Amino acid sequence: MIDKDSFTKCNISEIIEVIKGDIIELAINKKVDAIVNAAKPSLMGGNGVDGAIHEKMSKLYNDSNYFNKQIKRELDGEKELADNAVRCKRGEAKITNGHIELARYIIHAVGPKYDGGSECIHVLQRCYENIMKIIEETPDIEKVIMPVISSGNYGFPFTTAFRITLASINNQLLKWKEHNVDAFNRIKKIYIVIYGENSAAIDNALRIYEECEPVMQQEKRMVYINGFRSQWSYCREIWKNDSDKRYYFTISKMFRWLLAISRFVFFPSMFVRNQAGKKGWKFRREAIEIETFLKMLIPLMWLVFFETQGKYGAIENIYWRGMAIFITIWVMADTVTCLLALIFLADIQGPSANQLRSLILLIFNYLEMVFGLSLFYYLYCHCEYTELKIGFWNALDYGVLGAVHSAVKISSTFRIIEYAKSGTNFLFMALAFGFFSAHLKQRSYLSDMEK
Hints:
Elements: H1 12-15, E1 16-21, H2 23-30, E2 34-38, H3 48-61, H4 66-75, E3 93-99, E4 103-109, H5 118-137, E5 143-147, H6 158-179, H7 181-186, E6 189-195, H8 199-217, H9 227-246, H10 250-262, H11 267-277, H12 281-308, H13 318-344, H14 346-349, H15 355-384, H16 392-401, H17 412-450
Parallel strand pairs: 1-6, 2-4, 2-5, 5-6
Antiparallel strand pairs: 3-4
């Protein structure tokens, strides 16, 4: 059996190089095969990198309109479109011939305009995926140079755009190394150019690159943006586009927006995930799994604590009870809002990458709710009924089976616990139904393919 690493020639960190300067001069000096143009949808020229490339091509061909005519000839087909026609939608990329003195190919990529929402981030990611797809499918491209797309006139914050650029290229190269070794071995360099003399941009790029370099050296998948910025983009996306694009109006829009913004209340969880994300996409997912498991254990450990320490008066201590209730409600509310977001914000958050993993985590989430409700029932019975000393297993019987001791009477406090239990069961039934429906659709599709 051949070791895959024995015929992959270099590390991803050796392929990606960040440089500063003028993209035209660098393209010529580095003798690249392709230059990525941050273009307008018409591909007929514009400002910044787009304008610089068109100006250089005009000089090389000694014709101010030659490059535009060439683009029309290669992309419009038999029917030539108007100058302002859309030849490349936002998030897409097209390739045309260039000039031997600049680059053999020009890859035109149209980035999104920044509006603070999550959709423009997804479009920018898709833009780089399409660029890399063209590079992969063009066998004589070995060296490429590209700008940080959308970070100029389209208003993307430079740090966000640069991080997406770096992560997108790294993640696509990882896919090549796994599934298309020939394409990976062909690529010698991908230069990312920091255009202009903006010292702040250069400093930020250096900081982000140094943060991401260990992940690239270890050849791990990178996280595109941190959790806080990602969550804020969901809030902006809902506020800006729900009414106009998705037809969610007053009540549904406000519910979705409040649900998205409520996640900031649980900042410790977001902070942990954000820090884990700096070490790579895989590490972040592992951190989420560990966090989910530990959250499940919190109410269970409180139950064990009160059961074993009861003889020392722990159950009668208001501070212990208050701490147990506060922490358990906190982690349960974190889980509930996260699960509600899976249902009501699925259109902007995107589907889970692995449904089986999601189902396993959902089971842990359900056990967390069961143990939490068991804890509340345990504390309620011990505080309200001094003569009724239910045990650990009686509490779990309530959480799992709904078994209530005959001496327990309905009160306002117990009614809240019961409502919470019913709501929890309904939420998890809805989520389980969604997962199984998606799985059945997938099985049906596979069966059709096999016929």
